[in-house]
Hints:
By secondary structure, this protein is of the alpha+beta class. It has one domain: Aspartate Aminotransferase, domain 1, CATH 3.90.1150. It contains three helices and eight strands. The protein is globular and about 35 Å long.
Amino acid sequence: MKHHDVEKFLHGQGLQEVARTKKAIGFSVDGGQAEVYVNTETMSDNNTLIIHPHYASMKSELLTIPGVIASTAEYRFSSNYRHFPKARTNAGKDNHHGIPFGFTSSSALKELLEAINAVVTESA
C-alpha cells in the first residue's frame, strides 16, 4: 500500500491525527501520543507505517500476519517522529525512531492495528 492509502485507511478507522510534517503524519488511537506514523516520503511499500518502538517485542508476531511486509531496516529514524523516543543511529547520532512495516492489503493493515490496539487497551 502506498503512503496516501495508509493515511486514508487510518482516518477511516477513526484514528486521530496528532502530528503532521511534510515527511510524516502521526496517528493515535485515543488522541494522546502517536502510536504510529505514516512515512509520507517513502517511495517503497515496505516502510509506509512506522510503529512505536515499545511494540518491538511484537515484531515477529506482527510479521506473521498475511500481507504484512518486513522492511529491510530494523528501525526507521527521523526527526519527524517526535512522539517516539530517540536511539543512536548507525551514524552515531541520536534521533527519533520506530519500527517500519509495509502492507499488501488494507486487511493486513487492519489486523496489525488490532494487534497493537489490544496492547494499548490492556495497558490502559
